[in-house]
Structures are given as C-alpha cells and as structure tokens.
Amino acid sequence: MATTPYFHGVYPILATPFADDESPDLESLARMVRFMHGLGVDGITVLGVLGEANRMLDREREAVVRTAVQATGGALPVIVGTSHSGTRAALGLSQAAQELGAAAVMITPQAEAVPSDERVFEYYRTIAEGISIPIVAQDHPASTAVHMSVPLLLRMLHEIPRIAAIKEEALPTASKIRALAAGMQRKVPILTGLGALYGQFDLEAGSDGFNTGFAFPEVLMAMVGAARAGDWAHVRTLYTRFLPLIVFEQQPGVAIRKEILRLRGLIAGARVRHPGAGIQPAAARQLHDLLDAILPGADLTRPIVL
Amino acid sequence: MATTPYFHGVYPILATPFADDESPDLESLARMVRFMHGLGVDGITVLGVLGEANRMLDREREAVVRTAVQATGGALPVIVGTSHSGTRAALGLSQAAQELGAAAVMITPQAEAVPSDERVFEYYRTIAEGISIPIVAQDHPASTAVHMSVPLLLRMLHEIPRIAAIKEEALPTASKIRALAAGMQRKVPILTGLGALYGQFDLEAGSDGFNTGFAFPEVLMAMVGAARAGDWAHVRTLYTRFLPLIVFEQQPGVAIRKEILRLRGLIAGARVRHPGAGIQPAAARQLHDLLDAILPGADLTRPIVL
Amino acid sequence: MATTPYFHGVYPILATPFADDESPDLESLARMVRFMHGLGVDGITVLGVLGEANRMLDREREAVVRTAVQATGGALPVIVGTSHSGTRAALGLSQAAQELGAAAVMITPQAEAVPSDERVFEYYRTIAEGISIPIVAQDHPASTAVHMSVPLLLRMLHEIPRIAAIKEEALPTASKIRALAAGMQRKVPILTGLGALYGQFDLEAGSDGFNTGFAFPEVLMAMVGAARAGDWAHVRTLYTRFLPLIVFEQQPGVAIRKEILRLRGLIAGARVRHPGAGIQPAAARQLHDLLDAILPGADLTRPIVL
Amino acid sequence: MATTPYFHGVYPILATPFADDESPDLESLARMVRFMHGLGVDGITVLGVLGEANRMLDREREAVVRTAVQATGGALPVIVGTSHSGTRAALGLSQAAQELGAAAVMITPQAEAVPSDERVFEYYRTIAEGISIPIVAQDHPASTAVHMSVPLLLRMLHEIPRIAAIKEEALPTASKIRALAAGMQRKVPILTGLGALYGQFDLEAGSDGFNTGFAFPEVLMAMVGAARAGDWAHVRTLYTRFLPLIVFEQQPGVAIRKEILRLRGLIAGARVRHPGAGIQPAAARQLHDLLDAILPGADLTRPIVL
Questions:
Q1: CA B288: distance to chain centroid?
Q2: Which of A93, C305, D252, D278 has the fewest CB atoms within 10 Å, counting from its CB?
Q3: ipTM score of the complex?
Q4: Count of C-beta atoms within a 10 Å radius of residue A75
C-alpha cells in the first residue's frame, strides 16, 4: 500500500484484455495487475475509458473487478470505474465494486439534455451516500460532454466528504488544477490523466500524480519522484524524452496502448472490442520504430530502468 | 398475434414504471402490458429510450423483459431494445432477450469518433448472425448522433435478412420514408416514431404504422385503420384532434408520458429515474387541462372510443 | 405602431428571398414587409435563422436591413438579428443595424470550448453598451449549443437594462417562461418562437406573444388577441386547427416556409441558399394538400379571415 | 517564391494581431509577414482558426488580406481562409481574396443538420468554378464537425482540379495521410496542421509539409528539410526537442501562440478577441520557463538557428 497519502502518486488505468473472439482474457489481466504491482505503483484503475467499460456487460465488468482484486492479493488499491447514465445504476455498480473489494470508485458525471449543476451534484451525493469507499471524481469533458466548473467541483469536495480525489482532464488542465488547488478548503489530491500529455505542466501546476493509461507507468513514477524531490530539470528531461511516445499513444482509441501492452508481454493479444478500431499495420510499424528510438535495445517486458 | 404482416400496425413503446425508491415496479409493467394487449395492438416494445433502458443495470433489464413476456402469455410480440455501445455486448443483450422470449430486438447504431458506415453495417450484421429473431433497425439521429444514409439502410436491408423493419425517426421523416420505400428490393415495414409527431404525414408517405410511446395507442390504431381503408379525411381528423396532446407529450424527457400512464391507471406512480426530470406541478396542471379539453368526461382508465 | 407595450404581440421573423441565382431578391422582401405591415403585426424581424443570415455576407445583410426599414416607411419596428461569434463583430453588426434604422437587435449567445456564464454576460453587456436601441435576447440552445440558465437570464435582465425582451426557445419552453416570469424584478416581455409549436402552452404559461416565422402571422395575432381577452377556448380552437400546419412547417430547414410565402404571393421564388435544402416535390404536394384541408378555398395571397 | 512544387514545405498560419481595443493591428501583421518571408517559408496563410477569422467582420477580413499581400511585395504566396456557412458567401469571400491578390484560398466544409457528402462536394465545386486560384481543402473535424471520408476527398481531388492541396487534420492524421496518398490518381501535396503535434509521424506517413500556426516555423522548415534529405534521425531530434513547446502551444485557444509571437517581437500585444480567452499569468510564466529551457539564452526576436 502506498506510504504517501492516498491518491498521491501513480495509478495506471488498465486496459481490459480480450481474446480474439472478444471474450475477456482474465489471465492477461491478472498478469498485468501483478506487473503493475511489481513496478511499485500506488494503485490501479480498471474499467475506465481505456478499459472499454462502455463496451461490456455488467457481468463482464464484475469479472474484471474480481480478477483485478484477486491479483493484487489485497496489497494494492483497485479503483473501479462505475459511471452510468442513471444515478441508481451507477450506485449499483459502485456497490457491486465495493463488495468485490474495490478500494475506490472513479466516476464521471452524465450529460442531460439541459445541463444542470444541481443534478450533477445530486448524482455524486447519491452515490456517496450508498457506499463506504472513496470516490475519485473524473472531470473529462471530451468524453462526457459535461463541463464541471471550478465552483461546482469545490462545492462537491466540501459537501461530499467521500470524494477523495479529482482526476482532472479538462483543458487547459494546468489552469484548472491551479484554480482547484487554490480554492480547496478540504485538500484532496488532484491527478492528471489524458495519457500524461500535459504531465510536466500539470505537475508544475500542483498535480499530485497520474491516473492514466500510459503504458510505461515507471516513467510517470520517476517524474512524480523527481517532482517531489524538487528536481524539475529531471522532470523535464523525462517528459521530453518520452513525449513523442506519449503523443503517439494518446491518439484516439485504445489500440496503440494495447499494442504496447502486448509488446511488453502483459497481454496475449491487442484485440479491441468492435466497433473500436484495432491498430493498422503501418501504425504498428511506426510505433515499433518509435519504441526502438526512445528505448533502444530495451527489454520491454521488464521494468524500464530510468 | 397480428393478422397483418409482422411489424405493420401499432407497437407501443412502453415506459418502465418505477416505485418511489426508483426500483422497477414490475406489477405496474405487467398491468400496462395487459392493457395494451387488450387494446389490440400488434405488439409492444420495452427498453427503448422511453423505457429508460439507459438508466438500468443489465439484471434490471432482464426483469423487465421477463415480466413483459410473461404478461403477454405468449399472445403478443414483445420487441426489446438491446442497443449497446459495444457490438458484442449488444449481441449479448439480444441473445438474453431472445432466451427470455422476445419476438424481436430493436437496435440503434453507435456513434464512434470517426463515423463509419462500414462499422455500423458490421454492428448490425454481427448481431444478426448471433440471434434467430428479427431486428427492428431504429434510425434516430437525435439520440444516437449517427446519421444512417438511405443507401446504407438499403444495403443493410438487402444484405442482412434478419432486419425485418425500420423504425424511422430521422428528420424529415416523410422524405426518408419515401426514399426508403422507393429503394427497397426486399420490402419491409417502415414504422414511424417520435411520439407520432408527424403521424399523418408519415402515413401519407407510406409508413406502415407506429412504434412509439404516445400514451393513447388506440388513437394510432384508428389512424392506421383509416389509412389502410383509404379514409384520409378520417386520418386527418384524428391527427388534428389529438395533435395538441401529441405535441405536448413529445417534449423532451419521459415525465409527461409517465404522468398520462398514471392518469390512465396503468402505472402506480410517475417516478422518473434520476438524473431524469419528473413532471413539474404547473406542467401537470397544463396536461390535465389539455386532456379535459380533448377528451371531455372520458374515463382515461378505459380504452378511448373514437 | 403597436399600442401595447413594446415587444408584446406578434413579430414575424421574415425569410430572406433569393432569386434563382441566390442573389437577394429585395423587391420580394419589400413586398413581404408591406404585407406584414398590412396585417397589423407589431413589428418584424429580419436576419434570424429563417432569414439565412448565416449564409450571407455582411454587405448583403445590410441591404436586407435597409430594404426592410425603407419598406416600413418608419411605421413598423424592424428587429435585426446581429449575432456573431465575436463580440466586437456582433457589436459592429448591431451598430450598423442601428444606423440603418433598426428598432432593436436580436442576439443569441456564442458557444465557446469551455462554457462560461460570465462570458455570455459580458458579450451581451458589451453590445448593450455600444448601441442605443433595445436588445431581444434569444434563448435557442438547439441552434446555439448554449444553455442560458434562468439565473443567468435574470441577471442579464437586471444588470443590462437595454435587454428589452426575451425570445424563449429552450425546451421545455412553458416551464422556462414560468420560471423567468416568476423571477423578474424588472418585467420584460417574453415571446415564444419555434414556429409556434408550443403556442397555446406558452401563452398559458405567460408568454406575451410570438417572435417566429410561421407563415400565417394572422393566426398568431388571433391567438394573442384571444389570450388577452381571456378566451382560452378560442386560443385552443385556433391552435388545434392550425397545428398540423405548424408541425409540418417547423421541420428543419427553411424550405417549407419559403414555399408557403411563395404560395401567398409574397416572394417570387422559394430558392434556399446552398447548402440549405430546397423543398422536395413530394413534400410540396403534401404541403399543398394540407393547406387545402385547413384553409379550403382560401385565397392565400390575402390575409386569412379567422 | 518556393522552388519546390507549390504547397510543399512550410506555410505558417498567422494570427491576426489586435490592439488593446480589439481593433486589427495591421502594422504588427505586416511585420509578422515580413519576418516569415525572411525565414524563407514557402507561403503564409491568414484568416484561419488561429487568425480568429470567425470573430471578424467581412471588411476587417479584407483589410487583413490586403495588408498581408502588400507586405509580401508579391514575393510570397498568401493563402486566405474563406470558409463560410453559405456556399455563395464562401465564393464571395474567395473572389474578394483573389481580387486582393491571394495566391490560394483555404476552405473547410460546413456542417448541415443532415450530413451529406454530395453537398460538401457541391460546396467545393461551386467555389472552384467561380475563382481562378487554387484551393487548399482543410480537413479538420474538430472545428467543423464534418467528417470527410477518404473516398469523398479523393473524389473531390479527381473531379475538382482547382483543389491543389489537402490540409489534413483529422485524427489519426498519419493513417489518413497514408490512405489519401495511396488513393490519389492526381497527386497533390498533403500538409499537416494541428500545431505540428504529430509532425514527425505525419512526415513519416508522407506529409509534404506543414500548414499550421506553430510560432517557430524555422523548426518545421528544418524538419521538412531533414525529411527530404532522408535524415530521419534529425527529424526525430528536432521533434523531440521542441515537442514540449508544441504540446503546450496547441492547447485550445490562440492565447499562447499570440504570447509567443509577442515575445518574438512580431506583434505589439497578445490581445485575443472576446469571447476568446487571453493567457493567464501562471500560464505565461510556464511558457516563459519552457522557452528558457528549450531555447536557453536565445534571442527569440531573431530566427532560431538549429
């Protein structure tokens, strides 16, 4: 378990591996969880956008949670994405995750025809009142079409104690991180996402770490470590070195990340559930060249030494 | 069972009743199904947008299907909405519906970041290949953000024999109904939806009936009957008389329809699942006045005599 | 000039007539203005969505304003749509309209990547401070993608005295009209739009009239007159009689309205600017049948007697 | 004039400078044009998204074109953004640009309620038939909400000879560049945009250069030069070095780019037209630190030596 306060540090978002027939590949999932644990990450998140949660049945989602929790042996927090377009259903998914051993749930708000801060607030409060584990509030307008203002987020923090962290992915992230940090009466960690695209800038702005799917969490751990040590030159060096890969990887869809995870030996295949797109051969070649250039001669199946 | 060809006629879309704690009220659902059967509709549809399917867990959806099928006693086709943002999951929901006794599934396409006719086609074909009951293809860009062109829909009809009807709700509906009807080599029924907003015009354009949630299906049955008899003056009279109610009822959300169903004695309460909005008192008063004006002295709990 | 307070009553939104080569047909425009004046409307609006303002160059917009103002002979208020995605440009269009004799400007807010009530407020205030004629604030999320909350609209009313009316077109309109009316400290008229789709309901909710493009303003005038006289049965009769036409006409696009205006002898041709769609022959036939049924034997080129 | 074929190479997109009162600062514009010319770019583009064209009146746009053309002394091609939501108006803007000396126009398609490849095609063809200068077709769904498929773009190329280049900004860009290049019967250059975010990858995929607003075009010129020379290691080195700046700069809005242009001494002030957002002090500090780190000790007002 992390020795830093909860939700500081690096919480990789895991892909959900699928076999060629698109059935969940739970063996690969367990292997990936154990690898992340071995890296020393502070926790993991399953069933986010990268986890293709939106393409899965409820019972498949439960299998993913069960497998992830078991693979940690209880030694690593598992955060579970439980967003749903209905409040009661989101609560139901959250309660199921809690019963299966989740350490926290990660939740995005839901777009309604007429945007309403009040209904977003009620959504979070209702879920909070029905569970006993923390909530990571995810602010990602690009996927939700919901714009949570800084005042709304601060109100949520102050009136819903169960919200224990914010995953900030609303552009421009650094500005919003600064505004949130400045306004918090109760301090909670702010993690950045977006595949670490703005990693250096968000750490400079006060982000407490990463909650994202970049396939080399050890790089993010090194960046957080350097930031905590005040070694911003090292943060910058790490960010600059890996940024071409970060940029390439954060392109829409999950195919590129799954291909890296496959190359790292973590998942048996890079299959994406339809209608999601798989990686094209030319893009795969570009990715392989890019990895060779940034990590020449590296054994990707082992933790990268930085 | 309908004596007219399958998917001609009137297929009401049912709301899902909820108790005050938002749990499914299956007793009300069964009562509503029996009432519709008693009206002589050609079938019913559950778990559409009006059914708040998007706010329900998978196991809740199954309970709705089971209840609806049982309430018909096998004597009325039950169409089940089984759309999902993942193809395999939509197939899973469709297979579950089939096993529970559904007569057909109703399916919308899913929006992807880069629109692709090919992926929409594959989505329908994959589902079709995994089930043995018919598919009603629902074309409703307002809720799906997917624009299926007439050539795409015709290709789907011609290459996926399991598609047995089109529910046409893309504006302007009458033009699209005409274009589809003109282009079909294999003829399938086209039903109009949108709360019957364009009912007269869509029947004139060749629609074979209604698949929508207007809370007085007997009005729609009378319109279809008049249209089949060539009595267009009567179609127009019915449409004009009820159009203020149709317009009022098709406002966004499901609250008004649930209130009418409550007034008709079909559901115990008009509760809408959060974050959906319930009916406001002033709107409820307007609705009651409107019903009084259009159906003075009528006992709404009994079939309306036209 | 209207004897009722400003912005009460009926303000038709005018189409912009185009010749077959899509050049503005100012002669038709002047004829249409004179016809509306002859009907006794309270004012007219040019360069709204129906006016295809978004498909016109600035100098073409000026010609429309000049022509409309001249055709009224100064005896009828001309409201000019001057929305623009830049605040300073919206101000420039508004000042130009004022110089050309506009009685008021009609303005929608502009969507930004991150929604901001404050910027919407500033947009209106900046324009208000640079002109000396009233502003009609148009609330139409379907075309603007901006959701102005009731508190924001009330703040605008209370802090920007130049806002003299609200054109309310956010669904559900009746509820929003009630909420606005209840919250106003400074009372201003609220007009409904949307082609009069919710005309009866919005008048019941307290709307002060119509600001919309329905091609028979005399019907709307009769409805407003009946509402003012408290004769709600007559409001309902008028609404019910014309509702099929209202519904047909409010379908997306401007082609159907232009065809009616052509049939009324007001514009020489129904040409719509590309890429807007013209009316299809089958839709035109449906329209003609509909007009025959609702107004049998009527000479459409003359005011309809109700 | 460029010695490479037209539309190969680097065509910076210029911001439009504004004074503190938001009036166009044409002197700064001319200075910026001369600086770009001095760098040896292959041409410049004015009135794109970065140019805030959408916030300007037609007469202001004309002043920008006139100033830019004059500042080049006829020695550098000026491409002018002339997109408009009306086809005839886009043609009007294009003709005006041509008369003012534009070398080409850059045009995006317009979103309609019902997407139609045919109308997009007609839009381009109509403009092409009314001018005698080339068209750069800009494919940028993020700002247009129009998805032009590869077959549509190829049809446009083959049937509209006036289209002389494609500015490709649809994600994933590299894949689309490859597909376009593979499908072209008539070969035209493909330029990448998006602030050079995918610069290395798009050059690898066959892009012929850049048409974007990154404020150090000399970096992009060096990348194109290295790519032409087959020195991909140098492409990668340049891209990696400047990528943190590229990422920072491509955040939504134009404020960061204007601040860099100001720091380079090219524009007198970084004012953005309302409702666009200016740069926040904390973001400005981050930018200054970033520039110091990447270009330590450099005189930004002079061309960067690489």
A1: 24
A2: C305
A3: 0.97
A4: 8
Q: What CATH number corresponds to the domain at position B156?
A: 3.20.20.70
**Amino acid D5: pLDDT:** 58
Contact B254, B276 (CB under 8 A): yes
Q: List Cβ<8 Å contacts ≥24 apart for B71-76.
A: B71/B29, B71/B30, B71/B31, B71/B33, B71/B34, B71/B37, B72/B33, B72/B37, B72/B44, B74/B101, B75/B1, B75/B37, B76/B1, B76/B33, B76/B36, B76/B37, B76/B41, B76/B43, B76/B44
- Residues from D in contact with B at Cβ < 8 Å: 113-115, 141, 147, 170-171
Chain C residues with CB within 8 Å of chain A CB? 113-115, 141, 147, 170-171
Both tokens of residue A34?
């154990």
**pTM of the entire predicted model:** 0.97
Tens digit of each residue's pLDDT (9 = 90 or more) over D62-104: 999 999 999 999 999 999 999 999 999 999 999 999 999 999 9
Contact A238, A222 (CB under 8 A): yes
Look at residue D290 and tell me if it is in a domain. Answer: no
For residue range D110-163, what is the model confidence (pLDDT) as tens digits? 999 899 999 999 999 999 999 999 999 999 999 999 999 999 999 999 999 999
Confidence of residue B5 (pLDDT cuts 50, 70, 90): low
Residue B160 domain-assigned (yes or no)? yes
> How far does D5 lie from chain A, in Å, by closest CA?
27
Specify the 3-state DSSP secondary structure of C44.
strand
Segments of chain A scoring below 50 in pLDDT:
1-4
**Known active-site residue D167:** yes
Q: Kindly list the residues from chain D whose CB atom is less than 8 angstroms away from the CB atom of residue A196.
A: none
**Does D182 fall in a domain?**
yes
DSSP-based three-state secondary structure for D54: helix
What residues make up the domain containing D95? 9-232
Structural domains in chain D (count): 1
CB contact under 8 A, B274 and A123: yes
Q: How far apart are CA B37 and CA B208, in angstroms?
A: 19
Q: Which residues of A touch B (CB under 8 A)?
A: 22, 52, 54-60, 84-89, 92-93, 110, 112-114, 116, 119-120, 122-123, 126, 252-253, 273-277
